[in-house]
Structures
1.
Amino acid sequence: MVNNEVVEYIKRHKSKGFSEDQIRNVLIEHGHSARNVKEAMKIAGGEAVKKTTEIKEKPIKRSGNIIGIKRRNPFLVFLFSFITAGVYYIYWLASTTNELRKNSMSAPNPWLILLFFVPFVNIIVSLIYYWKYSKAVNEITGFSTGGLFVLWIFFWPIAMILSQIELNKNAM
């Protein structure tokens, strides 16, 4: 039996530009059977897919959770980042970005983090990265894009903790 939420999820993500393979892989990775996903793809493909302009549209939830976001203790994330002199921060940023990319087209490419280490380029890249990251968090959680962006620039530890708290609200 095909789950209507899965069909709607497929329609939404097709309209956002995700390929059928990307959608299929995410759904199977998160516990949906390949047969049910295949049937849902047929149903979703046979109906007209409308482009939606809803700002706070959220991906399909399984047991109240968004796909692929892990729960982490926000204060331990900060503590580990501090103890490791920022090494864990880079790891955390790349990990959460990959999780955001599963649910949002706005999320930045985590490979851009490498440019954080190039002098002068890092300023521009970090501003772009943090804007896209804030926008992706907004799409999933509804948290203010501009507010989070300003926090990333001036108070990154607070931005990191708030981002993780918001993501935890939608974690598996």
2.
Amino acid sequence: MIAQHENNVMASFMLYLDNKVCTKGKAFTNYASFFNSTRKEYSSIYGYGSPFRQFVMDESITNSPYIMTGAYLDGDPIHLGTSGFHSISHNKGHLYFTQEVTGENRLSGNFAVKDYNIYLSNDTEAEILFETKHHTNPKIIETAKALDPEVKTFPAIFIKSASSNNEPHSYGGWDNTIMDLRCVILSDSSFSLDAVCSILRDLSRTSVPFVQDELPFNSLGAYTGKAFNYTGIATGDGPWIDSVEISQNLGVDTYSENRSDVYSAFADFRLFDVRKPRE
């Protein structure tokens, strides 16, 4: 199955949101940390993780984030293609090697950690809010323990498709494809939650450019040396954000099994896209 209109909208919307939050909110922090083994291999590829997730990888973001393009082995710089250095997964906060690097705290690097990770999700709101255990990105590095590749950390924005339909628009087979998307926002402070909700609300009556080119990542979703610049590839005519509705105070603290330091909100987006769906 090849990607269809809804796949393209969801992917383009996720990258659009990520760029706007990082740019307008200056929503990242520069760090340096060790990378240690995750004890998991991918077809003879060895993974080494940081205590963080996700790293900024978009070179169009201003305000001087550290875009990680290399690493250090025992304090000496190494580059992709040398010393078995295969690729960098910014979304997972991992380094990949074709040979094992034995010993603790040998690999290190500089990077910018997003204030809000962004995920596409098929989970229900209840599963995201109340059933999934989320790890917090650390404020201070106490240990260099690697995060497991499947771990999701917060603060985070989970994007899910709520509904969609085609309505007749004009003669000639033109329809208006209406998509309702919901963002479930988990934050670690009320100030940060208000700030990110303000950014999302102000995206109303803007357009989401379609990403025209293939993303420059390998099969692991990792960087192999070709830069990712969002504004350089998001140049297609995409959907229009007709409205954004924010709902806060979701009552997470009423559930005793949930952490008291989680602040949550919904951001509901309605997207319009006039197109010829039967061609």
